[in-house]
Amino acid sequence: MTEHMDAPSVVAPAAEPVIQVTGAAVQLGGRTIWQDVALRVAPGEFLAILGPNGAGKSTLLKAILGLIPLAAGSIRVLGQPARRGNPAIGYVPQRRHFDADVRVRGSDIVRLGLDGGQWGLPLPFLQPDKARVARQRVTEVIDLVGASAYVDRPIGELSGGEQQRLLIAQALVTQPRILALDEPLDSLDLRNQQGVAGVIRHISRVTGAAVLLVAHDVNPILPALDRVVYVAHGQVAVGTPEEVITTETLSRLYGTPIEVLRARDGRIIVVGQSAEEGVSYHAHH
């Protein structure tokens, strides 16, 4: 579908897109997950990818990462075809949890973002200049995500929100131009969801990195968003939350009457759902 719902972003209109998706489709197991997807992402934009379980939210993110091939169309990242292992993308996969007995320090988890692809342990005394730059970069991203107070503690002792901040720092340590996060708020309480969302918004503004974040519930991240990408029933709608999360648009995507309400505190409430597929990733009745 054409991206008729795009709205002006916070980035200058002349900015070249860091991601451009044109007429894209994905098929898995002989089934079309979604098709005719068009999307342009500008530097510094914060987009949430929303939709029900199984709709293809993570599939869209993985296609942009070059992890899943397209059946039709194209995806270009920074002017080049999407490819696996693109160093310009910092990727935080679906929720990883560190058990209490994991004694690795938080700072070492972040440093893995630089050294994780190398065999053996780093030998800083052989390349002191590189080691100094690496330490400085690790310190910078830890400060950026607000994790300085607990970075020297074993990661297994930290809360879910604290662990997630360190995983985001790990993805940022290579200074990516795009930050891709697959359900980073899953299993966090509301306070931590809002805190992590605020950190991600701050990162996009400070670094200019575009952010793609897969989420079930838009409410904790609503104040931080520029646009949403809504995936449902093989279709994708793109625009601001006010344009996309509406009675008209969701009813069209789901093929069934859906009513969208906005509470006094700004929360989005979705009322009415099909018997086969609940829209439970927003507050609903």
Which properties best describe this structure?
single chain, 285 residues, alpha/beta, Rossmann fold, 2 domains, six-stranded mixed beta sheet, four-stranded antiparallel beta sheet, 13 strands, 24% strand, globular, disordered N terminus
Strand content: 15-25%
Low-confidence stretches: 1-14, 274-281
Structural class: alpha/beta
Number of helices: 7
- Report how far apart the termini are: 30 Å
Q: What is the correct CATH architecture of the largest domain?
A: 3-Layer(aba) Sandwich
Query: Which geometry do the CA atoms define?
Result: globular
- Number of separate structural domains: 2
Query: N-to-C SSE series?
Result: EEEHEEEHHHEHEEEHHEEE
Q: Spell out the CATH superfamily of the largest domain.
A: P-loop containing nucleotide triphosphate hydrolases
Report the average pLDDT across residues: 86
Radius of gyration: 19 Å
Q: How would a crystallographer describe the biggest sheet?
A: 6 strands, mixed
Main sheet strand line-up:
6-7-8-3-9-10
Q: Total strand count, please?
A: 13
| CATH topology descriptor of the largest domain | Rossmann fold
Written overview of the protein:
The protein contains 7 helices and 13 strands. The protein is 27% helix and 24% strand. The two termini are 30 Å apart. It folds into 2 domains: 1-88 and 178-258, Rossmann fold, CATH 3.40.50.300; 97-175, no CATH class. β11 and β12 (268-271) form a beta hairpin.
